[in-house]
Integral membrane protein
Amino acid sequence: MVTLIWAASRIVTTALVLLLANVQGANPWTGASPGYAEFANMWDARWYNIVAVTGYPSVLPLTAGGEIAENAWAFMPGYPVVVRLLMALSGAPWAPVAVVVSLAASLGAALLFYRLMRTVQPHTVALFAVVLFCVAPLSPVLQFGYAESLYLFLLILALLLLLERRYVLLFPVIAVMALTRPSGLAFALALGLHCVHRWIARARDPFPVRERMLAASVVVFSGISGLAWPAIAWIITGSITAYTDTELAWRSAYIGYQELVPFTAWFQGGVWWLGMPLGIVVVSVLILAFGLTLFLPAVRRLGVDLRFWLAGYGLYLLAVFFPQSSTFRLLMPMFPLLGAVAQPRSTLYRVGMVLLFIAGQWGWLLLCWGVDGADWTPP
């Protein structure tokens, strides 16, 4: 059933993508009315293509003003390495292989997501959560040349292993996941909260010494994995801030070149978008609303470990991310919340949510994927 849901959703999404591609004008990535594979590899997909073909620069490129320019170090190697291997085996070019890898990973993610939801929800709710996952407004990116499909597959697998307390298997999954999308530090925080909770609850839920040592080791390993890519960039380029400087280049168009100061970017973004003091107020309200959301009854039914992930990832985004149009994509790892949205049993509600999500796909494609002139809404 999950495979059928996934296949039906891909048909709907592909139809929407082709409809937009048909009216897409010439742009920096494609000519007018591009084919599917070409249209699915615009924007950051080009950076992943560069990584797959040429690797990473040993010398960081500079702007005319002497600042670090946008470059490939912002894009981790997990996804492009997989695509490159399949390119070598098949002899096919980047674009179609990237789409196939993303599609295959999205199917794997859907199958694992059902298993994850079944650990905390009954069958019908878990199945509808999969429907929402497959038709979500950002689901077109699951069949584009982006790392999101592969990352979500790995993240869902990691969360499933965590809920099943299969700590040993977490080591290789975390290692690959942390080199696919930035996630090691957020997952380390979730794991740390998991360990603290198990320690507190050990009277009713035994936490043997062996499991304590193993779980603590996974926490440390995840933290180290989260720092591995910045360390690799430092070793190869000779600049200790190579990775963070590269990431900061993408927000320079908004607030100029600045140092990375944790927990300030959302407030800077709020002021840039809404001015003072409204920007500060709105961001503060969003933080409070997110915190309260984690304690809603429907969210509490997801269990403590999934809520720990939501809290850990939310804190990570608050610490390092500057809000702009790609914020929607960066929120995709919050997918466990779909398990809360899926709980109402009303047929009218469920049909309405599916239609709303599909409309959201079209809105996201128009706003963030399609290119209209000097586009300032990157996906």
Remarks:
- The chain has 19 helices and no strands.
- The two ends are 31 Å apart (CA to CA).
- The mean pLDDT is 96.
- Residues 2-369 form one domain.
